[in-house]
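As a warm-up, study this chain.
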Amino acid sequence: MFGLGLPEMGIIAVVAILIFGPKKIPELGNALGKTLRSFKEGVGQSEDEAVEKEKAKEEKSQSGD
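Now compare it with the structure written out below.
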């Protein structure tokens, strides 16, 4: 994962705990998870819309032949 090993991940975790405190880490993780979930949903909707537009374009070109 991005060239990070276990020691690097441990150092990042310790620094995060020192900066934010142990009570705030779960809240930050929850917020990050919600953000990623909504981003994936948005990307999925964009892909669906692009597929629908492509199908409509193909149908239009086939009926116009």
